[in-house]
Amino acid sequence: MTHRQRLSMLVAMVIAALGLATTGAGTAAAAAPKTQAAAVAVPSAPVTGSFTDASGGAGTFAGTFTPTSFADQDGSLVATGTLTGTLTDSAGNAVGTVDQSITTPAAIAQATCRILDLTLGPLHLDLLGLVVDLNQVHLVINAVSAPGNLLGNLLCAIAGLLNPLPSAGALAALLNLLLALLRGA
């Protein structure tokens, strides 16, 4: 796997980790004239939470986070963006709204990593009268990296030893470039 392919895969994982999914981006880009770059809305991630309201009940928060930039903060990747949403008390009444700029850590999540991809062609064995015919076999072993998956975490870490991750600054620059492309700048 080339460095460019690894970087592309990393960017895709970061965007997936942030929960950013574009819907309709392909149709918006297809409808724009080819001589002018089409601006596509930057995807936002849903945000939910809870709080204790004035009556002691459990209120809820529902909103979205839209990233505006990424940065390297002490070697860690952070996302700055706009958080918008509504606070609802335990009785179901809206008690306030939020529309403010925030900065939050951006985690790089790796759900799976390929450990082995082996394809064996057809095989014919004759072992002293025992005949074994085996058609094509495709064996794929993936490790799932997640909390509590000790073996999956270990194998993903070992498999990625020779594939260094870019620095937080380099990753922030790449993500800012993607945001600029989405905005049509």
UniProtKB/TrEMBL annotation:
Protein origin, superkingdom = Bacteria
> Any keyword Signal?
yes
Q: Which residues form the signal peptide?
A: 1-30
Keyword set, alphabetical order = Signal
Any idea what this protein is called?
ABC transporter substrate-binding protein
